[in-house]
Amino acid sequence: MRLLIGIIWLLWCGPLLAATEAIPLRDPERVVFFALGDQGSGSPHQKRVAEAMEQVAAARGGVDFVVLLGDNFYPNGVLSVTDPLWSAAFESIYTGAFLAKTPFLAVLGNHDIRSDPEAQVLYGREHLGSGRWRMRARQDSLDFGIAEKRPLLRLVLLDSTLPVEEQSRFASGALSAGSPVWRVVAAHYPLRSSGEHGSTRKLLDELLPVLQSTATDAYLCGHDHHMEVIRLPGEPLQVISGAGGHVLYRVKERLPGSEFALQGRYGFAQVEVGRQEMLVTMFDDRGAVLHRSRVGR
Questions:
Q1: Hey, which end of the chain has fewer CB within 10 Å, N or C?
Q2: Cβ neighbours of residue 271 under 8 Å, at least 6 residues apart?
């Protein structure tokens, strides 16, 4: 059944399915990237997180790419590809020697669609500015690396502002096709969260079953402005990395399965994928390790 669904989706959606992004990896058998959301404030906090990212990248000789988890431009997104916010909240922020050469893959958040979300797509398609911004479409699927002739990582980028039915349909096709070693989904809204916004009921009802049926390994998100890792049997590892630079939120009563939750501290997540293990590390805005979670095969 999964194979049949994947074939139907491939015929429908064509070239957007798991095309290999032109991002050279430092090691084709290991993928390393940062993930953070709710960063687009242009504030000193965002700049400090960027400096910590540069510090961590430099210590390991670079990372392959960065995933921005939405709310890329506060308060109302960008008006066009020439909006000054491109410089104030992106180009002038991530300026270290390593990050200045690193691709940034982005998804949309609720603040991004208040103006013209298609401007963020166009900025990526046309390789404007520094050329680091990558957003080929509002939803996308990309393969990275290789392991025994299989894609090492399939990264599915969802637009949380679209109807959940549309997100689920896209995710089902993208995650079902082929046989990647690891499946990771990045979006803006959380499945479960101990933060102020809390869990997203519609995603739990409609998207989570898709992630479970396709054996998705991890779900990365923001929206709640704190850092948290939730691990529950039968569900993907859920990583909330919403402390990228905007005002921070408090953590309410921690949910079952919450193995790490921190309020009042800015930071970001690092995801490292190898053949046998996925390692998620949470860093603060000084580059200090706060927590590590491992998922093995």
A1: N
A2: 31, 32, 33, 34, 35, 184, 218, 220, 239, 278, 279, 280
3-state SS track over 82-137: CCCHHHHHHHCCCCCCCHHHCCEEECCCCCHHHCCHHHHHHHHHCCCCCCCEECCC
Q: Residue 1 contacts by C-beta under 8 Å, 6 or more apart in sequence?
A: none
Q: What's the CA angle centered on 64, arms 63 and 67, to 5 degrees?
A: 95
Residue 167: its pLDDT value, please? Answer: 98
Q: Tell me the per-residue pLDDT of 91-115, one tens digit each, with 9 for 90 and over.
A: 999 999 999 999 999 999 999 999 9
Cα gap 136→13, rounded to integer Å: 14
- pLDDT of 16 over the 90 cut: no
Query: Average pLDDT over the chain, rounded to whole?
Result: 94
User: pTM score, two decimals?
Assistant: 0.93
Name the β-bridge partners of 268.
283
Neighbouring CB atoms inside 10 A of 221's CB total: 31
Q: Where on the phi/psi map is residue 199: left (φ > 0), alpha (ψ -120 to 50), or beta?
A: beta
CA–CA dist 1, 244 (Å, integer): 40
Query: DSSP alpha helices (H): ranges in 17-64?
Result: 44-59
| Integer angstrom CA distances of residue 106 from 17, 157, 233 | 17, 8, 29
Do 220 and 271 form a contact (C-beta atoms < 8 A)? Answer: yes
* Residue indicated by tokens 């989706």: 9
From 122, 237, 227, 125, select the one nearest 184 (Cα to Cα). Answer: 237
